[in-house]
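Why do we care about 3D structure at all? Because function follows from shape, and shape follows, mostly, from sequence. That is the central idea of this module. The next example makes it concrete: a single protein chain, its amino acid sequence, and then its structure expressed as tokens.
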Amino acid sequence: MFLLDRPTLGATWGSTSADESRVDGFYLGTYTPDKRQIVLRDSSLVTIPDAWIEHAWSAQLTLLLKDTKRRAEGHYFNIPIPRQPGSESAYFIELADPDEPVMYYTVPAGWQAEFDALPATVTVAVKEKKQGSDSWEDAITIDTIKFSRAF
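And the structure:
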């Protein structure tokens, strides 16, 4: 018998795209935003796509040591919003309710947050720095977007 050094086994994950989630059988449905565009301080527009949600999953090994995915507790909410070309840090998104779970930005999926239960709506705040040299901690909310479950 030998010990497998697999620190990612047991961790929960989200898919990198809605198509991958569908193929793997974790996809649940779509959330629609209450607005389709936001204007950044430099007057550039960001198009807001539909968001999607899936069951969280975790990696496991079969008896034959083959990697597989199995459904886990929780859900991953995804906004497949690309970063602005040439402006990697023009804005960021966070949950508008500070008591909600921690969010993070992933590539290529866009923005992703983990929820314990399936939410009816998700409201996010879009934030920008006042000046390029400011800290992200001093960023201001320029808009909010409410995503509503469409399934």
